[in-house]
Amino acid sequence: MASRSFPLLRRTLFVSSPAPPFLYSPTPPLFLHFSTLPAAPLRQTHFKRKFGRQRASLSEEEEPTSGTPTMGGGHSRWKPMCLYYTQDRCTMMDDPVHLEKFNHSCSVKLGETESDNLVKNLLPQAFDYFLVLDLEGKVEILEFPVLLVDAKTMDVLDVFHRFVRPTKMSEQRINDYIEGKYGKFGVDRVWHDTAIKFEEVIEQFEGWLYKHKLWTKEQDGNLNEAAFVTCGNWDVKTQIPKQCEVSGMKLPSYFMEWINLKDIYLNFYNRRAPGMVSMMRELQIPALGSHHLGIDDSKNITRVLQRLLTDGALLQITARRSPGSNNVKFLFQNRIR
Ligand SMILES: [Zn+2]
After folding, report:
1. 292 is catalytic
2. Cα 239–chain centre separation
3. Which pLDDT score is estimated for 15?
4. In the chain, where are the structural domains located?
5. Of the residues 27, 278, 293, 333, which has the maximum number of CB atoms within 10 A of its CB?
6. Ligand 1: distance of its center to the CA of 231 in Å?
7. Of 114, 136, 143, 257, which is the active-site residue?
8. Stretches in the chain below the pLDDT threshold 70
9. Where are any strands of DSSP class E within 170-271?
10. What is the pTM assigned to this prediction?
11. What is the residue-wise DSSP string for 258-290?
12. CA of 176 relative to ligand 1 center, distance in Å
């Protein structure tokens, strides 16, 4: 595989501040980042009514971050991720108090057992880059997080993260849906502040792919030396085409094939693990953040990917859509059904 230079990649962003380890926490991480974004006047009024109380209670709970879980003596204090930052919308990067409270690095550190020596022993892969994708939202897509992982170094080079506003739901239903889904993580406010429609997400995502030289609109074809990595087939096989239909869009050309990590896991370790949590448990990888917050799940899937790579797995395409149809061909005989 020819290696290419990526002048636009911002690797320094990720090496300068190591990501603190964090665990599934009984107390969800809080995301406090209010009054930094211009919001439509109508929505603003709505926020005040609906989230005013929660905002106050979050403020009271803002301080005790020192009580949040940490692991490993040498690590810095755990901080919740700034989800405005992951969407290129943090306006408080020069505020030391904010930086002290929130994590602004998207790097995913290898587990305690991995080391730089293992990275040197990685197999040559069929792809130069992996795009770890883990959608949220069963009815319509609510969150679209993608981590760009270098296949040679396993570094997370960049993150594309957007909250997605459903198109075919009433405001009331959206509010209930978001409260139920993201309220428990304390991120319903940032969702309302930043969510955009799926077609806009895809437009921005294509700009991001183009910036990283992974895809061009002109060629309208597959990804360039990169492949999506998902936990299961649902994300790319089912939910993306379903959302495209709801949003009245053509299925983008790059969603034709993907790597289902569960099938790789099954064929490499010869053990069945039906989901992300069971893969992590079997591999003894500590789970981080909030399960079913898409950005955190994507990071956890990236940890499983990193372990598979350091253990010597070859990541190959596991499923491919037939051109012009929704039929999917599964390329591994032995697979999770
Ligand atoms: Zn921030």
Report:
1. yes
2. 16
3. 30
4. 12-330
5. 293
6. 28
7. 136
8. 1-78, 110-118, 120
9. 196-197, 226-230, 257-260
10. 0.78
11. EEEHHHHHHHHHS----SHHHHHHHHTPPP-S-
12. 26
